[in-house]
Amino acid sequence: MSERTRMFLNGTAMSGQADHGLVADARLLGPRQTAPKYRFVAVRDEFPGLLPVDDGGVSVTGELYEMSEELLRDSLLPGEPAELELGRVELADGEMVNAMRLRPERLRPGDKVVDIADLGGWRAYQAHLEAQRALPRRLGRQPASAEPPEPAAPAASGSAGSAGSAGPPEPGPAESGSEGAGAAGPPEPGPAASGSEGSPGSPGPAR
Questions:
Q1: Least crowded by CB within 10 Å, which of 50, 57, 180, 181?
Q2: Nearest-CA neighbor of 49 among 135, 145, 113, 142?
Q3: Domain spans of the chain?
């Protein structure tokens, strides 16, 4: 018969969580709390990690399981994130058990890391995230995607109106740029040089 070990779980492998299937054959001993010697952080909002500290520690809520060494090594540990490692933690009653602890050196510079120790546990943080996602709806705010179509219509009608108002001035330059505008060439030699070759008498539109 294989040896049995006690494992304190505080994240995604707890009952009702996404990775609980990894310890489906383990025996739940019940809810537990650590001694007040840890901070608890959420990494990228994906999983939590226990961080032992010398001061400012709190008790972290989780569940205590009894499982075989094979289940621990062959099922649970392979499913754990690289930012966590197997270690020992102290429970509130003084018992030392296995648990996954955070490896700060494995965190990437851009990782979102949030101290959630004062929230009480991973489930409390999940509830907090869900409440934040629901907040815009509860405040009655409309999605931003519903706004853009409004300014689009005035922009289209405005461009059509400006095109119509710009119609009358354009025939003037057009006539001066025609072959019949040769008579206007001598009085305005200077502008003809700065304008386009085909419109010597219409410096205004050329700008």
A1: 180
A2: 113
A3: 4-138
The closest of 90, 95, 67 to 5, measured between CA atoms, is 67
Q: Is pTM, for the whole model, over 0.70?
A: no
Architecture of domain 4-138: Roll (3.10)
Q: Read off the tokens for 117.
A: 């120790």
3-state helix/strand/coil string of the chain: CCCEEEEEECCCCCCCCCCHHHHCCCEEEEEEEECCCEEEEEECCCEEEEEECCCCCECCEEEEEEEEHHHHHHHHHHHCCCCEEEEEEEECCCCEEEEEEECHHHCCCCCCEEECHHHCCHHHHHHHHHHHHHHHHHCCCCCHHHCCHHHHHHHHHHHHHHHHHCCCCCHHHHHHCCHHHHHHCCCCHHHHHHCCCCCCCCHHHHC
Structure tokens at 131: 């409440």
